Amino acid sequence: MKKLFIMLAAVGCCAANGQTVHTLPPLPYATDALEPVMSRETLEYHHGRHVQAYVDNLNRLISGTPYADASLEQITITADGAIFNNGAQILNHIIFFEGLAPEAAALKTPAGSLAAAVDRDFGSFDRFREQFNEKAAGQFGSGWAWLVSDNSGKLSILTTSNAGNPLRDGYVPLLGIDLWEHSYYIDYRNRRAEYLDNIWRIVDWEKIGSRYMAR
Ligand code: MN
């Protein structure tokens, strides 16, 4: 698959019996580095417990199946049921966590060709964020909000429920924001809109832009 996912190559490694052993990718920053937008307690539970559980589940589920040596991308695109749910959730969280950065370090606005595409397809960056937050707030229950690109570079905003990933529909996910309550309940309780307002302080548009260039 595209360069977007080369950086994910370290996610799984190989056991002697040929079955891929998926491992929890480390966060690219300290667990307290996203405070105050996202607390250390949230990251410890979200990354260390929830995503770890998806990794443990997937390794157990794929044993003896055609997905035993499949990549996360292959699982996300082709699997169904529990293997899809756990595999896609690992990929979704890698896209999410790697798209964030400490507030002082994050590039706060798109640059270069991505900035031009945001203006072209949404009117302005402010309009993009308004539309994104509106769709994200309106996603009923657990799911994800995405900025995606099609093959031509046209941008759009999608939401998916549960473990859904835009790769299933042929889009390249550039930015994924977790709408499951475990992503915000410790810091914001039930206030999803406040979480969505604050998340922009730690979205790293340098990373999102590099995904757009690599699509
Ligand atoms: Mn999550």
Bound molecules: manganese (II) ion
Q: H/E element string?
A: EEHHHHHEEEHHH
Outline, from the CA principal axes?
globular
Give the N-terminus to C-terminus distance in angstroms: 9 Å
**Measured on Cα atoms, how large is the radius of gyration?**
17 Å
Question: How confident overall, as mean pLDDT?
Answer: 94
Low-confidence segments, given as residue ranges, are: 1-10
The chain-level structural class is alpha+beta
Number of strands: 5
Determine the number of helices (DSSP H or I, runs of at least 4 residues). Answer: 8
Bin the helical content: 40-55%
Estimate what percentage of residues fall within beta strands. 5-15%
**Main sheet: strand order:** 4-3-5
The major pleated sheet works out as:
3 strands, antiparallel
